[in-house]
Design brief:
The chain is mainly alpha-helical. It has a single domain, classed as Hypothetical protein af1432 (Orthogonal Bundle). It is built from eleven helices and no strands.
Length: 204
């Protein structure tokens, strides 16, 4: 028996989910970058599996932005193609499904509050999503400096606030290696930002 079979993972279902994600996100690129958005979705699914997630949690990792980015009608499609559990996780990872989206601050506060009552499936996939994003922000800070924050609605202050609130929530709700790494990564995000701000303010 293969390792995938022993772990209860069907590569065919994952492949189907990846193909679906590539189709519905085909025209998207990462915010402030020129990289295809599917890279983020594959990365989140990879983190889910590395964190001990099962097949349906990994599929949800691939599809976690489907409703938010492609519209509420995607929920019914996901339910039909991948089942109720996957659809529920994707819904739980969605902070808005309308356009235009609600105001940023209220939306993010509501998402953080929602995590307090989310189940383990949603917390795992959401934490992997946030860890992937926090790693990417840290990497971009090294390359692009403070200009990284120009791509975010809330700028420096709001972005740092949001990720610190997320990290604190996950470390409390799902203590363990995943949330600990998110906490460390967010601390590094704050450190890099402070260092860049100090350098920018220093007299030449």
């Amino acid at each position: 028996m293969s390792l995938a079979a022993r772990n209860g993972v069907s590569w065919q279902r994952l492949a189907d989910a990846a193909a679906f994600a590539m189709t519905i996100h085909a025209d998207q690129i990462r915010k402030g970058a020129e990289t295809p958005y599917i890279g983020h979705l594959l990365g989140v699914a990879s983190l889910v599996l590395e964190s001990g997630g099962d097949e349906e949690q990994a599929i949800a990792g691939l599809l976690h932005d489907a409703i938010e980015d492609q519209g509420a009608e995607q929920e019914a499609v996901i339910l039909e193609r991948f089942g109720a559990r996957v659809a529920a996780i994707v819904r739980g990872c969605t902070d808005a499904d309308t356009m235009p989206k609600p105001p940023w601050q209220a939306r993010k506060e509501a998402y953080i509050a929602h995590l307090e009552h989310a189940n383990a499936d949603i917390l795992l996939v959401s934490a992997c999503d946030k860890l992937y994003n926090a790693r990417a922000i840290c990497g971009d800070l090294h390359v692009h400096g403070l200009a990284v924050f120009d791509r975010f609605t809330a700028g420096v202050k709001g972005t740092l606030w949001y990720y610190r609130e997320l990290a604190d929530a996950f470390m409390r709700l799902i203590p363990g290696p995943l949330s600990a790494e998110l906490g460390r990564t967010v601390t590094e995000m704050h450190r890099l930002t402070s260092s860049l701000q100090e350098n920018a303010a220093a007299p030449s």
